[in-house]
Amino acid sequence: MGKGRKGGSEQVPNPSGITNRDLLQRLNFLYQASVYLQQASTSSSLEQAQTDTRSSKRRRRARSTESIGTSELLSDLSKNYAGSMKAIGAKAIVKMDPVVKRTMCKACNTILVPGTTASVRVKPSSSHRHAISYTCTKCRRSRVIPAPPRRVEPPSNTPAQGPSVSEPYPGESARAPTGRHRKRKRGLTTAVPFFEREVGHVVFRGSHVLLQEVAERDE
Amino acid sequence: MSDTSTFRPVAPYAPLPPIKGEKLKFTLSDPFVPTFLQSALPPSVRDPAQVYASGVKGKQILLENPARESRTKKLNDEKKVRRAKHEERKRTGVLGRTAAKRMGLWNLERDVVKYDTFLPIHHLWLGYMAELLDLAPPPDHDPTRNNNASTIPKLPNAANMHPKLVKADFHGSILTVRRSKNPSLVGCCGIVIHETENTFKLVTRADKLKVIPKQNSVFAFSIPLYAPAPASSLPFPEATPQTQTRDHDHDRVSINTPATTTTSASTSVPTPALELTPSIEFELYGNQFRFRATDRANRKFKAKETIEL
């Protein structure tokens, strides 16, 4: 969540001066609760599935309906919390951070956890070279987010060689590119997005500083 | 028409000759159809005039087959409509009723809730409250100092808390029904797992789900006076039911959803033996709290007096 994040460098940033701070805190709480419930839901369904393999058939049936009830209930609650997050954000015009927003299914508000409630695939994209699609396993709704290759930090290096910090796909760099390929890649790479650059973000928890970055001056 | 045009030289600017010929000259006395029938019917038909009188005269006859829509076109159109509907639904992210049922939305009625599952949410809520209300960190753990000096001057201002609490989220809080028109609800206590416009859904310690209407009841909830220590957050302390907190440092404040504050601060000496933190208790008037949880986010609450209950 973008709460408490400020790019101010000269004056000491003050977390209490943020507009709608209470709403942001509420969103934060709801998000955490929602994620917790989603986890509890998946773990309860898994747990029941493990015990089912051992128990007898009749007991298994009785058990499984109960477990389905529990996990469904928890996931429903989780969806409800996430939905209320959305509703609060829309009502009070508090923007959720895209990073948070993308972890919720657009259609059914399930918290998308890769591997359990979301299947993540890298797809070729004509305009961005790569796109990552997150498909909700509950409702099959997919959200495709372009993931163009990032520009490598020292621009003099050939982008295809040498692992670097900002290279998102190490597998991609191992492949030896043809000449045409390399050209295209250079044209399409984008800079690191603003929120990932080190420009002196300060992260607060409550009112005390959790993390303070040192701003890079050499840009 | 034919004999004149063949012999004359063509005069392009001359007016068109009047159309001659019986074929196109229809009068009531000499209509076209009977004469046409006489000429067109095969000779085996004996009385064409009678055929005309019985079958044709005074009836509407379609001279051509009606234009018929081809079946494939119809199918295509249906498909198009269906697809547009589907796209629309996909765009807005709306689930149909059958789809929602299949996905099992909101069958809360089964008694499968566990109190222990929701206890972490309660602790999360306590942390949220501490952050929202900007509670002070706990003073030294030395009980003697705790009693005498540091607790009493640090009592937070309850009036500042009210507008924040009214907008806060109550999922995860432990609510107790203090007073109610329905006497069987009084004393019901549990973690709020879902809040609707008119009800709170609580999970009691006996793992029962209770749906309690907001109308005609007064709820109570308590918030610890100090923020939970960050280190001690891992082993969750057992939540204390409301009835036991009475003997602690105890500031009874009623939120009359925005307004009147009957602050009857009764500061008693906290008992360090129980290792329970001092807490503030608030009262929540359900009658004035009947809004959806999401609507409260930017709602202007007005001061109202509660007369009945």
From TrEMBL, chain A:
Query: Mind naming one GO cellular-component term on file for this protein?
Result: nucleolar ribonuclease P complex
Q: Which domain of life is it from?
A: Eukaryota
GO molecular function list: metal ion binding
Q: Bias regions of kind Polar residues — which residues?
A: 42-53
One family from Pfam that matches here is: Rpr2
Q: Which GO terms describe its biological process?
A: tRNA processing
Please give the residue ranges the record annotates as the region Disordered.
42-69, 145-188
User: Which keywords annotate this record?
Assistant: Metal-binding, tRNA processing, Zinc
Segments crossing the lipid bilayer:
none
- Renumbered to this chain, the Basic residues biased-composition regions fall at 178-187
Family under the similarity heading = Belongs to the eukaryotic/archaeal RNase P protein component 4 family.
Q: Which PANTHER family does this chain map to?
A: RIBONUCLEASE P PROTEIN SUBUNIT P21, RIBONUCLEASE P SUBUNIT P21
Name this polypeptide is given: Rpr2-domain-containing protein
Organism of origin: Botryobasidium botryosum (strain FD-172 SS1)
From TrEMBL, chain B:
Q: Where does this one sit in the cell?
A: Nucleus
Q: Which GO terms describe its cellular component?
A: nucleus; ribonuclease MRP complex; ribonuclease P complex
Q: What is the annotated signal peptide range for this record? A: none
Question: Quick one: where's region Disordered?
Answer: 63-91, 234-271
Q: Which family does it belong to?
A: Belongs to the eukaryotic/archaeal RNase P protein component 1 family.
Q: Name one Pfam family in it.
A: RNase_P-MRP_p29
Return the SUPFAM superfamilies for the record: Rof/RNase P subunit-like (SSF101744)
UniProt-recorded name of the protein: Uncharacterized protein
Kindly list the biological process annotations in GO that this record carries: rRNA processing; tRNA 5'-leader removal
Q: Where is the composition biased (Basic and acidic residues)?
A: 66-91
An annotated Gene Ontology molecular function = ribonuclease P RNA binding
